Amino acid sequence: xxxxxAENRLRFEQxxxxxxxxxxxxxxxxxxxxxxxxxxxxxALLRACRFFRGFQGGDVRAWLxxxxxxxxxxxxxxxxxxELMVEFHxxxxxxxxxxxxxxxxxxxxxxxxTRALETLPPRHRAVLVLRELEGCSYKEIAAITSIPxxxxxxxxxxxxxxxHSALVNPGCKELLRGL
Amino acid sequence: MDCEHxxxxxxxxxxHELSAASDAKFKLHLEHCSDCVAxxxxxxxxxxxxxxxxxxxxxxALLQRNIRAxxxxxxxxxxxxxxxxxxxxxxxxxxxxxxxxxxxxxxGLRGDDYQAELAGEIVDAHVRSLQPGPLTGIASDxxxxxxxxxxxxxxxxxxxxxxxxxxxxxxGGRLDVMEGRSVAVLVYERNGHPINVFxxxxxxxxxxxxxxxxxxxxxxDWRKGKIEFCAVSDADLVDLxxxxxLISSSA
Lengths: 179, 251
Ligand SMILES: [Zn+2]
Prior knowledge:
The complex is a heterodimer of chains A (about 180) and B (about 250).
Chain A: H1 6-15, H2 20-31, H3 34-50, H4 60-79, H5 81-84, H6 100-104, H7 108-118, H8 122-133, H9 138-145, H10 149-167, H11 173-177
Chain B: H1 3-14, H2 20-31, H3 34-52, H4 61-74, H5 82-105, H6 112-130, E1 137-139, H7 143-151, E2 169-178, E3 181-190, E4 193-201, E5 207-214, E6 217-224, E7 227-233, H8 237-250
Helix pairs in contact in B: 1-3
Zinc ion (ZN) binds near residues 29 and 35 of chain B.
């Protein structure tokens, strides 16, 4: 059940591989770590490959991102279960900052934005990343995250408000202008 | 339109997801509501910051290479190397297993449509359980504690066992609602993959396991002693079948 014949493999390469960036981006922001995102995105692509025969056609990016999102949640459930328990009014503690990535961020405004995004609860973060960085429609976001469209809307409005207040904190406006 | 209600609408308007009629109506509202205009500016600031800061994480070249390498090992034209030989053997075994299961499905009493719908509902419930937020339930690896908690809330009694020695560690239990009735859910973990076993009372006769997959999750469903079980996970189907055997032989 795990093998793909040559024709399906070609189809997979043509349809799915162009969305590896989207897969990695979603995993990176859900897991708040590039290193973990590399592992989990690879696992998700492998899983997508296994289920490719089940793909009925349609929005292949949404189909792939749904698998990525589910794989991320399983991974978090195993490795950082408390992160998924975060209530929506709470903020997450930032991941340890001394990763090569955050040190490489020369721009302080970008660093602050990264932190602000990473402290959002997982669901709000997913919805915001899918909308603003991936340009997904509400319908696509609902399909990817398995939440109703009404919840997509309210999550998005709360996520934007939270991010906005983090961005306009005193002392931050100058940094934003420098972006 | 009142502004309380508009809090969310602003975002829908900002994302161009309002219907044409609502969109026109909202534009009128904007003409004399400075609060909404300010909120729109805030949306703009957030979008602008996110997009101009180049925080989109592009896949590293190594990941692209690894994925292509994975793909190549999936292709039937690959050389018949030693590790792959095992890989193919496992694939053939899995295929055989599924074929047998599918064969059994054909003898099911209920229609495939019903089964598909039910599977959809169960997979949704499984997905819900992976969402953040508090779950009503009990976290314990002690089968007696989980059973006691569930028995007090259900109209039927079920056996609850921890199969940690067999590789299925009991994580706890909870209640869920499906098709308007309460169902028990036992949560196990298999090599890091959460498995939900949904359990409810049925009048239907016993069945052998049937399997399927949906949205990247697999399920195995069976009935025994007027109780229906459905195990769902992103773990391998073979693992779900193992758990089915453990549960069936312990009940
Ligand atoms: Zn207004």
